[in-house]
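Agenda item 2: adenosine-5'-diphosphate complex prediction
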Amino acid sequence: MKQANDLKQLLRQIDHKSYPAYKDTRGSYRFPGYILNIDHVQGDPFASPSKVSIAVSGQEAGFPADTYDQPHKRIALQDHILRLFSRALGQYSFKARGSGKSGLIGVSRCGQEILERTACQMDPKNGSLLVRMEVGFPADGRRINSGELIKILFDFLPECIPQSLYYKKLDARKVQKVKELSEDQYYIRQQIKARKLTAFVANGTILPRESGVSARPMKNAVPFRSPSSLEITLDLPNHGPLTGMGIPQGITLIVGGGYHGKSTLLKALELGVYDHIAGDGREYVATDDTAVKIRAEDGRSIKKADISMFINNLPNDRDTRAFSTEDASGSTSQAANVIEAMEADTRLFLIDEDTCATNFMVRDDLMQRVVHRDQEPITPFIERVRQIYQEQGISSVIVAGSSGSYFHVADTILQMNQYKPMDITELAKQEAKAFPLTCEDAPKAAPPTTSRCPRQSSSFRKNDRIKMKTMGKDAFSINKETVDLRYVEQLVDSEQTTALAYLLKYMELHCFDGRTPLKDIIPRLSAQLHEKGLASINESSYLSSNLAMPRPQEIYACIDRYRGLML
Ligand code: ADP
Ligand code: MG
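Presented output:
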């Protein structure tokens, strides 16, 4: 293997040459204590930055095996290491100077959630580390300025690598805490299943966030406190006994006056499918990890969704067993979101009235009297929610502050009062008796038929370069087709969005054959991702440094919003 000095020499030789001479630096170089890989070199100073990775052997990294011997612990440790590395190196970005992206040092920035990322991967077999980043190779105009790159590779990196990638240089107590928290979080998730709960929210949790643009915990918030009737105590392996609210399976209603914290609780449940870092305030909130937020999403496209459980006899005789539109209404979009979440094997719907189509959720008595059932294409969710739970085992947590109708169908009713939940199930059921529902039960509906087998789109057949671009967390484009993920609210990181773009490309090229149903493709792909990682879907000569693992539910959501899908 080439040595660090070979690289230094090469860099000195190409100084002031025209930019493409940087290409010769591609390769691996042994530095004291690690290997530097130059995986991809940018074509000019303004192009997307070069890809560089650092490999540290298990022996050199030196992490104790019990900090990474199970996937949840390994992912939490990777996350911790990446945060340290990003913090250490971040201060050096653009310290080396020049034109275009010269001197940029890009390392993933992690948010409050703990995600598996390609930016930092540990091999579970031997504890070796691979950390990926982007570096803007410096230039003056379009001429190489290798002196500045030497600064980055020979001063900045050797400074940051030991203090974030070598166990012996880290604060061992913090590493231990990361491991312990991840064991506790894992335990809570197991208990949710074992005790037939949909979610757990520990007493003392800080639910609200600092602001609409900051995911950090709100200061001086009212800490969460479970109503005693729903209180359970879990005996966490490290924390010890922890008391909180266990939300049972079934249909749970969250009511209460405006501004009393209903949506804030639901939001925490939505994100409870992920683990949170220490200090977040939601460390001990866990939701069934298949939970899907359901909302109205007018304007989305729908491809052959069987929404006949909810919508029938449309005026233009449109077939709702295989309903397609380029521009869905509030109710049809929400119906499709429910059906697609079923296809994605969810066990829990999370619904907030703030983002619902009212006519999808309820129809009041007076309206039923005036507009007869035969004239109304929509069977509202309230008439299906029990059937869905009883026949398919899918629970619902519904925020509803303005309609009492759901009292009749709920198993558990919580009232948020000054940010504190109260269990008002008995009281609300009693009161509801005085207001019987006049609507008959909706006739039973067959569960939706879901066997959609996408064909490969013709734009992927020509062997052209496939262009992909991520627009933050909310969208990506692929071959000029934009996939709008703005309302897929459980996507938390733009790196997940980028990974979805890669996954879609992979499926277009390898899985969409017109015969295999999505119901086979996506579970198989998810299993592959968990076994072999995001690297297994990589088509290029190097693996992108900015991919984060999405859930299968978001892979489905992405395909369902892809207007180029050929069915
Ligand atoms: P609702 O959905 O019931 O109308 P929200 O959940 O939107 O209410 O909360 C209203 C406001 O109260 C928000 O600004 C939120 O940040 C704040 N808030 C929510 N929970 C708490 C809490 N536990 N302590 C302090 N403020 C809170
Ligand atoms: Mg609200």
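Discussion summary: The chain has a mean pLDDT of 95.
Owner for follow-up: CH.
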